[in-house]
Amino acid sequence: MRLDIQTKDFSYPVCIGNLEQITHASKVLVVSDSIVAPLHLNTLLSKLKAPHIFTHMISSGEEHKTWQGIEGILESAFQANLSRKDLMLALGGGVVSDMVGFASAIYKRGIAFQIVPTTLLAQVDASVGGKTGINNKYGKNLIGAFHPPRAVHIDPLFLTTLPKREFKAGMAEMVKKAVCFDKDYFKWLESHPLEQHLELGIYKSVAIKASVVAQDEKEEGLRRGLNYGHTFAHAIEKAGAYSTHLHGEAVAIGMQMANALALKLGLLEQATQERIQALLKTYGLDLPYHIADFESFYKDLQMDKKNTKGICFILPKGLGAFVAREDMDKSTLKEALHAWL
Amino acid sequence: MRLDIQTKDFSYPVCIGNLEQITHASKVLVVSDSIVAPLHLNTLLSKLKAPHIFTHMISSGEEHKTWQGIEGILESAFQANLSRKDLMLALGGGVVSDMVGFASAIYKRGIAFQIVPTTLLAQVDASVGGKTGINNKYGKNLIGAFHPPRAVHIDPLFLTTLPKREFKAGMAEMVKKAVCFDKDYFKWLESHPLEQHLELGIYKSVAIKASVVAQDEKEEGLRRGLNYGHTFAHAIEKAGAYSTHLHGEAVAIGMQMANALALKLGLLEQATQERIQALLKTYGLDLPYHIADFESFYKDLQMDKKNTKGICFILPKGLGAFVAREDMDKSTLKEALHAWL
After folding, report:
1. Interchain contact A133–B (C-beta under 8 A)
2. How close A73 comes to chain B (CA, Å)?
3. Which is it for strands A139-146 and A2-6: parallel, antiparallel or unpaired?
4. What is the ipTM of this complex?
5. Subunit contact B138:A9, Cβ cutoff 8 A
6. pLDDT digits (tens, 9 = 90+) for A290-323
7. CB–CB of A71 and B71 under 8 A?
8. Could you tell me if B84 and B118 are in contact, meaning their C-beta atoms sit under 8 angstroms apart?
9. For the 3-dehydroquinate synthase C-terminal domain, which residue ranges apply (chains A, B) (predicted)?
10. Domains annotated on chain B, with CATH
């Protein structure tokens, strides 16, 4: 199966199915991490045809998505003296593709990169759309660039080695898109256990993202819906120093927080909230969470990239639609979040 | 006088003349350096209307155009919690605008910036065209982004405090454009002492760059002519750790090297070479230089961003035209450069 994603400057293919041969006429720098490489690097290299292939390994984990990690990738690129005709290739989860995307965006003012995502989260979400970046002490993805890949190769076979916890976490991004953009997809997810419909489930999720991103590449309107749950998630991840929750887990908790706020504002009915919660529960994403310090949590919400006036909350409006609200006062928010305080 | 520069995404004004009021509806972070700020920051602030104004100072000089400098700017931006609607404003020479441009390109995946250039070099060249970046141990501007400013405000009055050496260095970029793109402008420069025709001289130079950049924003063809002298200049600057030569001085030497190569290849007549040399001499840019270590110099040339196969040399083809050549062997180059060995 194949989708084509239209960006402002070019379109790129997202191929879903058995990994096919990847050919490049000049140098390729393959970047992977310490967990994925031992499992899948050889498979990838057996499919890669290029005159010169270099590899660079980064430490696994969101806590390594830092400038130091980018410097390491750039160092390997300069050592290999990659030119603007050469290619970086990311093999791994969202951390790897976000970092390789950012490194390739700023190396010699931008070279091409491609992605072979190996986690469910990266396959259904992170690998498509051109957002790249790193974290810093102020929060998540606060430094980065819009730099779309030139191709994404999604092979569900890579998921066979994915820890169950990570697989479930990836599911959160699928639910996210169903709730904000596509009621039919939500119903489909309710009635089709993902493990048995993996390729089609991924395809449908990528298709929604492709359509959204094509309409709003730079997140000025529609694309903001993809941030449902994320304003909260970023604060949750930061509070845990990017190591206690997987990104998808934080998004799942964040969606429930957004739902609580939407319920309070009359945007969401309780029955719908419960359906979303039930679907998350099916994948073990009905997770407990406690906001240790509301003031600090609130401060982190204020750092979100989407904010221009107040904190920008993406709230579901029933199933298949959303609103962006920047007019929330602190006390309303605190009341809505009482279950987590 | 005003020129409008068309980029792929938007157009921006370059205003040449007395600095007019700059108005922004939200926060502005003004970035300047330790030499320019004491001279001109108050003038700028008196012309700037915005609800919240922050300032950040960087160390003056090309040797500070590093990631550490970018981190400092980003830190001030996060402290001020700039949103995507806010603005960075560069007041200074090319180092300041390159750094503010890059910082604004990657802050929250990109916010707007404007430039008030205070050196001749920045006014006629660096401030227009959208190239931003920093140096690293591998060379000059090797990390960066294409990120055009939203406006450039050129006031020749700022040049009254510019050291003579820097003024002359800026002239090199004007000669560069005349040689590669515009024979009439070359003749005009020969017959019009710049000090007495400053505003018009700047205007003509910016107009050439505007036209070139509009035709080839990402440097895939025509824009490469703007790199005349620069392949050599980057190696010269690196050899001097970015502190012995001003950028324009290195470019002037680099143009003479390119001319020697062009002469050897029959692209340039000796009489034309001498005219270019004479014009440079008028501005004290007929500078001596010695290549201390040819092997290391050659290695630095190989790191140039424009290279895809061999080293890419931009060579004048008479006056008003150029060719890009990647087929030069090492011995031909060494022979052409004998005067500097």
Report:
1. yes
2. 12
3. unpaired
4. 0.90
5. no
6. 999 999 999 999 887 777 778 999 999 999 999 9
7. no
8. no
9. 170-307
10. 2-160 (3.40.50.1970), 183-340 (1.20.1090.10)
